[in-house]
Amino acid sequence: MPNSVNRYEEPMNQDFTHTILGKTDLKVHRFGLSAAHRGAEEDIFPHLSAHNPGVVSYTATRWRYLLRRPRGWPKDSRVPTAGECYRFVLSNPNVHVCLTAPSNVKHLEENLAALEDGPLSAEDHAFMCKVGDAVHSKKKLLG
User: Fold this and answer.
1) Which tens digits make up the pLDDT trace of 59-76?
2) The whole model's pTM is what?
3) Do residues 80 and 131 make contact, with C-beta atoms less than 8 angstroms apart?
4) The CATH number of the domain covering residues in 4-142
């Protein structure tokens, strides 16, 4: 059996949750998590606490969709930065690593600088969820 598992956006079923996530020999799990895709918070993370495996997250910016103004989003309202997206993911105590894919050195420096700000405040977390919901609902309508 592998020592890691990778899941993204697939509905979790009882069989997968109890058979795979409940295995103590899985050392690392990799899941997609972003403000637009928060399903792991309910479907996955509650089942990991007994074993405390390493959790690696990716797609924090939801392929950059969270960095764009969602259709219908007020023009005078801010949109998240990449740093806020990474901080959103890393604010979850179940996540140990958040992958980032900066396109240049400036973006890498910005991403690393954002980490110095630590976890999001409750207000910023709510903002990220609101933007994430707008992005997620728009993609469902278009998809």
Assistant:
1) 999 999 999 999 899 999
2) 0.83
3) yes
4) 3.20.20.100
